[in-house]
Amino acid sequence: MKLNHDKIIAAVRKGGGRFGKRELVRELGLSGEDRRELRHMLSQMVESGKLIRTDRKSYRMADELPNVMVLRIDHLDTHGDMIGIPARWDGEGEPPHILVIEKTSHKKPGKQAGAKLGVGNRALCRISRHGDDYQAELIKVLGSGPKRELGVVIKGGRGMRIRPVSKGSRYDYLPERGVKLNAQDLVMFELTSARHKGDRIARIVEHIGTADSPRAASIISLFEHNVPVGFEPQELKAAKRLKLVGLDKHREDIRDVPLLTIDPEDARDFDDAIFAHPDTAKANKDGWVVWVAIADVAAYVPPGSVLDKGAFKRGNSVYLPDRVEPMLPEELSADLCSLRPNEDRACLAVRMRFNAEGDQIGHKFVRGLMRSHARLTYGQAQTIFADNAPEDTAKAALPVADHLRDIFKAYQCLLKARERRAPLNIEVPERRVKVNERGEVVSITVKDRFDAHKLVEEFMIQANVCAAQALDKKKADMIWRDHEPPEIEKVQGLADFLPALDLKWSKGERVTTRRFNKLLAVAAERDLTETVGMSVLRTQMKAYYSPKNAGHFGLNLTHYTHFTSPIRRYADLIVHRALIKTFDLGEDGTSKEEASRLAEISEHISDTERRAMAAERDAKDRYIASYLKDRIGASFHGRIAGVTRAGLFVQLDETGADGFVPISQLGLERFLFDEKSKSLIGTETGGTYKFGRRVEVKLMEAMPLTGGLIFEVLTQPEKGKIPKRRPHHGHGYAKPHRGKHKHKHKGRRR
């Protein structure tokens, strides 16, 4: 028999990925020299990429999938069906998208075999081909796969170990044999089921870098929270091909509108611009017209494109002290969608009208081509608002100084309506960690909070409201920004705690932002702003994205969405597309597939937002711990920001850093944790440490790897009543260690 590739391919296809060499010999009827020729030709075809040799030593076509394989559920399609992709893909190009069918079990009628299957899960499936498409029948749900963790390699008396960087980790692990490791390597690892002399063995998945690198704090935080880093080659190629869009039938020329940007001094991109002028309509005496123009990201990132898929995966940009992990490549975030002065840029703008009392009385969305007339920092804008600008600032801003004054007058008008609306007014100081080019912390300061900041914030809020109202009126598919009222249990906890500060919240009182603001005002008069502010903040629910409107409690608004930052938030991009489709502003609006997935998209971007916030917070903690590591033994002033059975959390005034005071540092007596007053009370003296109290602490330990700080309290407890009940260790009481301090708490636990 004369062997050729076509005959081998036909036999391999017939085997459906099950035939090894023996089965192929039998199928082809080979003997003698033909067997050796088959082995040689199979090797050639595997090397050329035509065939794939599986782990079971069988062969399948490179463009075909095996009969049984593990899939990862990637998304839901327009019909709500689950679409999976191979958990491992060795082929060229994008992995195939496979429809996953959940069959009803015959053994247990009515029970769905895939009841627990969802996006992100892994599943063992039986694969079948239908023409050019694949279909998968669910066999078994496998979950999300082994959990990956980030760790640092340490060298000790027992050789190399892997220490997880997570604050809550307690154990070190043994690396698998045969892997070349150096002390201080940062590695991604998975725990295996194997053990050696009682130690769990970790499998190294990837080398990330080194823990002693100056920028390790950010690297650790990004990887620990699974934040995608960098861009795929196809995303970068797509971004480089983009060109500035021009005027067309859907895009108006608004380059004469003197829009300007106001941003932080170190801002790299400018995605929103504003302008305001008195309303000339006689029917709106003393009213104002306010423009908010936003970079038109939708013009460059259509639904389903490579850039869109990457942006969805990230969900949002992540801002760390030394770097930004952007949602979209620099060609967009720092160029085409950055509203730089005196350059044409595509935008989606809203022209809003407000009456003399600050109430919005109308709005219109415009897709336009704009040109920013000035780029100002918050500080520059503030000095002009206050009419005390230095000569150089005043000169630089001279062409737009009158516009700035009009913008400020419009803001003062809008403030009237804001004050009537009474949104939640919690002013929490925000710390800025400044890092130099070497990745070293050079300063930690409280960010300024000017009227200029509040002005831009209020204009953006109003633009977001207009977007929500416009889409809701047309009953359009959209994503809302929801913030629900506090749960009654949390408000009850606040009411129970306030008497300890000689404040009160009547139990039958209605929960409103105005009521919270009244409490905060009284607290400010008694120098309790931070204590009560933190307590009120902890009663609040987390904001989230949803295709259903639940209102925004914190802003006290019935209609609210995110429209103003599509370059850094995927939610805003979805809203832009909805506006484009609803008001016939172009062909790149919401697609049918996207509209069917709004629930899934909302859940995903709510998760990515929480992921980004955690990474940002942890990176800041790690940089601050690195900044303080040379000040072991120094004393600091701060405030008790949390109380638990195990000890106290203290926030430092100087840096805003959070650290832990183990109960072993409070003295020799036992302490009772009182939930209502959020206090630790000495059972022998009644000495009390309560939430919100100002204290002086000494830094005992600083751990840059985890961001943890350990303190000792130097301030004596306040006098209080001795608890009536005698303590029983382990029953609501905490007993100190009477020896060398060996507490393992790392960082905060709130």
Features:
6 domains, OB fold (Dihydrolipoamide Acetyltransferase, E2P), Arc Repressor Mutant, subunit A, alpha+beta, five-stranded mixed β-barrel, 17 helices
Mean pLDDT metric: 86
Helix count from the secondary structure assignment: 17
Gross morphology is globular
- Rg estimate, integer Å: 31 Å
Name the strands of the widest sheet in spatial order: 3-4-5-7-6
- Class computed from helices, strands and strand pairing: alpha+beta
Q: Tell me the number of structural domains.
A: 6
Contiguous low-pLDDT stretches (5 residues minimum) are 104-115, 726-750
Strand content: 25-35%
By DSSP, the count of extended strands is 34
How widely separated are the two ends?
Answer: 75 Å
Largest sheet: 5 strands, mixed, barrel
Helix content: 25-40%
In short:
With 750 residues, the protein is α+β, with helices and mostly antiparallel strands.
Question: Can you put this structure into words, describing what you see?
Answer:
By secondary structure, the chain is of the alpha+beta class. It has six domains: 5-61, Arc Repressor Mutant, subunit A; 68-143, OB fold (Dihydrolipoamide Acetyltransferase, E2P) (Beta Barrel); 148-212, OB fold (Dihydrolipoamide Acetyltransferase, E2P); 233-482 and 546-616, no CATH class; 488-540, no CATH class; 632-734, Beta Barrel (OB fold (Dihydrolipoamide Acetyltransferase, E2P)), CATH 2.40.50. It is built from 17 helices and 34 strands. The strands form ten sheets. Strands 3-4-5-7-6 form a five-stranded mixed beta barrel. Strand 19 and strand 20 form a beta hairpin.
